[in-house]
Design a protein that fits this description.
By secondary structure, the protein is mainly beta. The chain has two helices and ten strands, in the order ββββββαβββαβ. Strands 1, 2, 3, 4, 5, 6, 7, 8, 9 and 10 form a ten-stranded mixed beta sheet that branches. The longest helix is centred in the last third of the chain and has 9 residues. It is globular, with a radius of gyration of 15 Å. The termini are close together.
């Protein structure tokens, strides 16, 4: 295993920071309501090995509202959002994932990066621990800010129902 990596444990709805084979910390998350899958427009969370390809939001407020990977200049509050029901808010930070497995989650109609799959903050903290996202990995805004600080570009990320059986192809 890589010396430091993230495991998105879909069965437990937890994101685990790993040191080799040992967990260091865990966060409650939400993955896709449509389950696991790699196809574009499926609304599924992609499986397998990925890397953090881009980090967005450094230095922004924890509740900064991001749209199109840019800060809107606004911060989330329940009062502010009352007039915008059913909005899938992206808050605080984005860790934009890129698939590491050619033909599976990288390239073609299953490319994780081109599907805009992120680990990001959400306002829907009441549903963390349940698979309700549109494909991304959602976290509480304060939790994603803590994780963001510890995850440089190229941090390996594994998404699956159980721990990986093999290490990623890349060397870290």
């Amino acid at each position: 295993m890589p010396p430091r990596w993230l495991w998105v444990d879909v069965s437990a709805q937890r994101l685990r920071e790993m040191s080799g084979a040992e967990p260091r910390s865990a966060y409650v998350i939400s993955t896709a309501r449509n389950g696991l899958g790699e196809r574009r427009d499926s609304g599924c969370t992609p499986r397998g090995w990925h890397v953090v390809r881009a980090r967005i939001g450094e230095g922004l407020p924890t509740t900064a509202i991001l749209r199109g990977r840019r800060w809107t200049g606004a911060c989330y509050s329940a009062e502010w959002a009352a007039n915008r029901p059913r909005q899938d808010w992206i808050l605080g930070r984005i860790l934009w994932l890129s698939g590491s497995e050619n033909g599976f989650n990288r390239g073609g109609f299953q490319d994780t990066f081109r599907r805009y799959i992120y680990i990001h903050g959400t306002a829907d903290v009441d549903h963390l621990g349940q698979p309700v996202s549109a494909g991304c990995v959602r976290m509480a805004p304060d939790a994603v800010c803590m994780l963001f600080a510890a995850c440089p570009v190229n941090t390996p990320v594994f998404i699956g129902l159980q721990p990986p059986l093999r290490s990623p192809a890349r060397k870290y």
